[in-house]
Amino acid sequence: MKASLGIYGTYYNQISQAFEPFIEPWDMTCIMKQETEKDSQKYEIKSDKYLDFNLTYGMAVNIKDIKNRVIDKTFKIDEDLQKEKEREKTNRSEEILRKAKIG
Q: How far is CA 91 from CA 26, 69, 97, 99, in A?
């Protein structure tokens, strides 16, 4: 059995306002061999090129930007959850006090 795969990746560089490659076009092949049913499977993975990643200043800025937005959003969600827990706790306390006054 033989399978081939080709990948590449681009990103939008906000500084130069253009798309740039961060993974250069790359192809690989995977070949699975098994002589008989009792033999173990053997895999051969090969490519004629190196897998090249480009990390530019513009991409580093984008990564930092995304990281900061994710962290800010995560902290905001945590704060909102904490406020909701406090509201629920207050509501339960008020409910207990109301029941105590009635009874």
A: 59, 33, 10, 12
